[in-house]
Amino acid sequence: MARYTGPKGRINRRLQTAIYESAGALKALDKRGNQPPGMHTRFRRPSNYGQALMEKQKIKHYYGLGERQLRRYFDKATRQKGNTGANLLMLCEKRIDNVIRMVGLCKTRPQARQGVAHGHFLVNGAKMDRPSYQVRPGDVISIRPKGNLLRYYQTVRESGVEGEGIDWVSFDTEKLTATVQGAPSAEDISLPVDANTVVEFLSR
């Protein structure tokens, strides 16, 4: 799942949500979002199990998680105080690849994940190559001081890519740096998903 390379438009249509943000995937959802992928098919009312599975798939595809990674996040969320579903999604929101996408340094989360994995970004001045890194208050995310990287991400910004805006991270558009000022709350979760259904599913 973390390295899904298949047709992203099919996933958007299957889950009826803009999970993948590439132009083709969004176009597929816009034009044929009322039809599931495949020939001569139509949506059927899913069972409770099917609905829960669909909600889980939304989280996995949206944040680029594998099954084991999602299970680790779930185990961690259950040990935290508060609502387990909200805790699970907040752990996903704090991933560095998600933050980079949210501030507008990349067009999509897969692109942000690839950039981090290739060592394009620094956290507090040190190279970071783990897309799953959980950002913390005070962390400063910047681009490695290499001319080609700086030009590339500046071009991405100038191409009209905009961040979705998150109150707990400030972004300097001139220096292209993001500073984590706090932690996300339940209101900051960017994915429309029934997390409690996912919690029930993972608790079986």
From TrEMBL:
This is Small ribosomal subunit protein uS4. One of its GO terms (molecular function) is rRNA binding. GO terms for biological process: ribosomal small subunit biogenesis; translation. Belongs to the universal ribosomal protein uS4 family. GO terms for cellular component: small ribosomal subunit. One of the primary rRNA binding proteins, it binds directly to 16S rRNA where it nucleates assembly of the body of the 30S subunit. Residues 94-155 form the RNA-binding S4 domain. NCBIfam families: PRK05327.1, rpsD_bact. The keyword tRNA processing does not apply. Keywords: Ribonucleoprotein, Ribosomal protein, RNA-binding, rRNA-binding. Part of the 30S ribosomal subunit. Contacts protein S5. The interaction surface between S4 and S5 is involved in control of translational fidelity. Coiled coil: none annotated. Residues 3-93 form the Small ribosomal subunit protein uS4 N-terminal domain. The gene is rpsD.
